[in-house]
Amino acid sequence: MSKFFRKVLKEKGLKVTPQRVAIFEAITHLKNHPTAENIIAYIKKNHPNISIGTVYKVLDSFVENKLLSKVKTEKDIMRYDSVLTNHHHLYCTETDRIEDYEDDQLNELIENYFKTHQIKNFNIQEVKLQITGKFNKSLK
Amino acid sequence: MSKFFRKVLKEKGLKVTPQRVAIFEAITHLKNHPTAENIIAYIKKNHPNISIGTVYKVLDSFVENKLLSKVKTEKDIMRYDSVLTNHHHLYCTETDRIEDYEDDQLNELIENYFKTHQIKNFNIQEVKLQITGKFNKSLK
DNA sequence: TCCTAAATAAGAATTATTATCTTTAAGGAA
DNA sequence: TTCCTTAAAGATAATAATTCTTATTTAGGA
User: Fold this and answer.
1) Which pairing describes strands B88-92 and B122-135: parallel, antiparallel, or unpaired?
2) How many contacts does A have with B, using Cβ atoms within 8 A?
3) Most buried among A19, A22, A54, B92, by the most CB within 10 A?
4) Are B59 and B101 in contact (CB under 8 A)?
């Protein structure tokens, strides 16, 4: 388990520090998409002197090195969407551009899929796609 | 156009104020998912004395009254996700619970769909579903 | 026109995160 | 093993978006 972790750090030329080990352990222990705050709280139990800035920096480096990913939340730096039809979003990886993507055929496909494949213990209200990629610049 | 707007406000018992009208106009004019900052900047041109707090409060009330919705971004109050398989997320409307949802059959369905239905001027790198709904409490 | 609750303005407070700058320590070299 | 270099950590200030607080204003019904 932590062998893999050490290996990744080595490969990237990153030092194996007690802080990084503690944060890695916290993440493998904490389930359900912890916030930075959750992670800090967990680590402080065994590692009370860790600096919050360090935790943020380490988390960023883990994301860069694909040990973690980030989940979108509905809070802060919100962007507003005035179209209220059921549509999806195209997110550009290079810019902060977000475009709407409407596709009734796709909506129908998904709706039918979930009619026959219910999710255990969960009642679906809405399904939205986050489609990440790159816009083709040549045609604006 | 603004008749609909006035009607909605009336129905909800909300007063029609110049600020609300200006914000509504800004939103109908600005495309591409403006931030609160974008909206404030636009309004200030014709309405230089509007208070930022007012803009935030009005936007919130518009979201409550379904004139707007919010779009998730990747910034701030991040939550971290240690599972790096291609999975989706279940968001609970009642709590802040987020669960992973893995479904290879669904992934395949979507992948095949986009193979035959390319999005114009956009190269897809990743497709993730945000499935919003309610967890069935009885079974935890 | 008057009255009252709702809305606005102004600015302080909060919160998550990032930046800065100094000190520490990981880990390769001697 | 010790030394050395540089990345990493710690402490704390700064930032940025948003929320809160309180006094003032105003929409719209009586």
Assistant:
1) parallel
2) 188
3) A22
4) no
> Which residue of A8, A69, A76, A82 to mutate against B (max B Cβ within 10 Å)?
A82
Find the distance separating the first CA and the last CA of chain A, reported in whole Å.
46
Query: How far is C-alpha B25 from the chain's CA centre?
Result: 18
Three-state DSSP class for B106?
A: helix
Q: Distance (Å, rounded) from C-alpha A128 to C-alpha B3?
A: 30
> For B74, phi and psi rounded to 5 degrees?
-95, 5
The residues pairing with B128 across neighbouring beta strands, listed in sequence order, are A130
For residue range B97-122, list pLDDT tens digits in order.
667 788 989 989 999 999 999 898 88
3-class secondary-structure state, position B45: helix
* Helix residue spans in chain A (DSSP H): 2-11, 18-29, 36-46, 52-64, 104-116
Smallest CA–CA distance from B63 into chain A, residue: A80
B9-63 pLDDT, tens digit each: 888 889 999 999 998 888 888 766 677 888 888 888 888 889 999 988 988 888 7
Backbone φ and ψ of A121, nearest 5°: 60, 25
What is the pTM for the complete model shown? 0.66
Rounded Cα–Cα distance for residues B98 and B100 (Å): 7
Query: Residue type for A133, please?
Result: G
Please state, in angstroms and rounded to a whole number, the distance separating the CA atoms of residues A117 and A109.
12
Range A16-33 burial, b when 16+ CB lie within 10 A, else e: eeebbebbbbbbeebeeb
8 Å CB contact of B113 and A99: no
Q: Are A29 and A42 in contact (CB under 8 A)?
A: yes
